[in-house]
Amino acid sequence: MKLSLGLLCCQLAVAASLKFDLDLDHIPADRYCTDEIGPCFEQSDHPGKPPFYFSVPVRAEGNYRVTVKLGDQREATVTTVKAELRRLMLERVRTAPGQFVTRTFVVNVRHTQIAGGGEVRLKPRETGNEAWAWDDRLTLEFTDEHPAVKTIEIQKDDTVPTLYIAGDSTSTDQPVCASIEESADVAMPDGAKETVHTFGWYIRKFIADAKAKGATAILSSPTIRNIWAGGKVERATGHFGEWDSEIAKVEKLAFLDHSNATADVYETMGPEKVKALFPQDHTHTSVEGADLNASLVVAALKGVGSPLVAFLSAKGQAVQSYPTPLDTGIARHLVFRCGVDLSPP
Hints:
Layout: E1 6-14, E2 17-23, E3 40-41, E4 52-57, E5 62-71, E6 77-83, E7 87-95, E8 100-109, E9 137-146, E10 149-156, E11 183-187, E12 193-197, H1 199-212, E13 218-220, E14 228-229, E15 232-233, H2 240-251, E16 254-256, H3 258-269, H4 271-275, H5 287-303, H6 314-317, H7 330-337
Parallel strand pairs: 13-16
Antiparallel strand pairs: 1-2, 2-10, 3-4, 4-9, 5-8, 5-10, 6-7, 6-9, 11-12, 14-15
């Protein structure tokens, strides 16, 4: 059956709750987004076919608890739900004909305006095809073989913690040598001068700024790449994990040994099986590889006894802590998620 989503009605149940009923047979032409503000379906190059994007204006940034009812009265369904810009919320939820299931997750919405003044400087792509990550709407993506959504409820939730992640693959492209002073003036390619600092200086600055805002910092060693030598995988990139560990001890903060946790699992899998998780290059993983990396962060959080464990989903609660014996513990549990046989080659 050709699927589409249609909005039947929306109503304000209480001050902070929005409810939407969705018609799975068609999307009326007037329910697609225009310049007018209101709940709507984003324009699509393939109307009537997944993925479907449903956006709801939200005035305040912060966390929103989203409850969806999935299923179809007549047919079996498979639904994956993502939020904002590719944030995986629910993966391949299956229902039989006539079966409906309810799932709840939390979506963080952020705007470019900074409380107290100022604005986030966006890259050109973040104002174009990645604008959903920063606009004043909460956008949900419904996709997979046969997505089916009956109802959506959205409610502001100020009771859950917000986890901010700082750092990406470009954050260490130009490291300042650890042997120089804490700060130094360097010449930029265009001739301008800029004051730069050591890795440790920046990390301590992040920590101090976070504490000033009432947040708790957690440090982690980097993810690792698919680079092997002598049957062993590369366990770290330079000294960054070592420096993070030392700073965490001084600042009395939790440190997640993500590098070694990942390496332990990779070496249990072996080079050929790990290669399947890196389809493009030795740095960027597939979706399955990203899921494995995320699960290892959860495992490390459990290993240090982080209070964030109390807020994990059922999927997160099923992950065993790191460190644990790899032959019967975390490696077998996590790698099974990637469809990899752990039996000896």
